[in-house]
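Dear all,

This email documents one entry for the complex benchmark we are building for the journal club exercise. For each entry we list the sequence lines for every component of the assembly. Then comes the predicted three-dimensional structure of the complex as a token string, followed by one or two observations. Please use this as the template for your own entries, and keep the labels exactly as they appear.
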Amino acid sequence: MTPAAYVHLDLDAVRHNLAQVKRYAPNNKVMAVIKANAYGHGITRVAKALEQADGLAVARVDEGVRLRKAGFSQPITVLQGFVCVDELLLMLQHQLDAVVHTPQQISLLQQQSAADAGLSIWLKMDTGMNRLGFKGADFNAAYQQLLDCPLLKQPINLITHFANADDLLDDKTRRQIDRFNEVVSGYPGQRSIANSAGILGWPGIVSDWARPGLMLYGCSPFAGKTGADFGLRPVMSLHSRLIAVKNVAAGETVGYSGTWQCPTDTRLGVISIGYGDGYHRHTRAGAPVLVNGRRVPLIGRVSMDMITVDLNSQPAAQPGDPVTLWGDGLPVEEIARHADTIPYTLLCGITQRVQIVEHA
Ligand SMILES: *Cc1c(COP(=O)(O)O)cnc(C)c1O
């Protein structure tokens, strides 16, 4: 029996997408970003599929510890670093590389004795994102302070993050790159700049480590494009099945609040998927759904456990017929557009009750 609602994960696609990263950034090592449970795909299974990556990156210390406890031994960067001494000690214990971005972190590093020595860090420059990092002269001052810190492995590595690299017409990205290069040019450490949008959209960035996330999962960070445009293959496909088919007369409304009124007599399909599974509640009527591999439009509101579709184009469809919500044959980027969101949120949003079917 097929599960009611399930995600199919094509782990071979992860390996393929990693190879594509290496084609787009041939002179870079790859720090594969697997934060947020590998964008909803499962952190340890994706880490296993990424054994060819030079390193891994997560957002938080607990994600890094989890990877170490699962036996992963490659470099792991924690993109938010530590926020207290306990986290710093955990990072030392598990040999996790820290991003350092606040004066408080520097104080914590200075307070540790050299007996614990051996932490690798990435010093973060804020080049215009205005989220994490040191700006301008503060960056140089932080660098100087860290040079004298016996806890640290030298050289100190250098990192920044783009704010708007998915907009190819915004020259802010160019300014961020120039600003970073200008400041770090005299420093010996390794450099890391580009996320997926930087890798795909801004070729020629000079750095040592690329930091792809989204593209490893087969998606495009650019509005109006899909992963296939860049030779990427979707990893996640979300599936369910029809559970009811019925006729609804023209003029009747469908679903909560009656937001959809049937313009004609309608063959209505009910599918067992909803926001309780991670199918976004704000997905609008008209969003494509694959029933028996063919597109039909969503109609009415998304409920917790069900959605409704117009099956007038498929009069023979029956309960039990297979449905794809996104993934294979239906780019999640396209569904994100119909839900006024980005593919990141849809991938991250799959809930516990959805069964996972892996394909190595
Ligand atoms: C999440 C993240 C990435 C990966 O971004 P994608 O757009 O998914 O490629 C890279 N660097 C940092 C600092 C991040 O937080």
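Observations: The chain has a mean pLDDT of 96. Residues 33, 35, 79, 161, 195-197, 211-214, 221 surround pyridoxal-5'-phosphate (CB under 6 Å).
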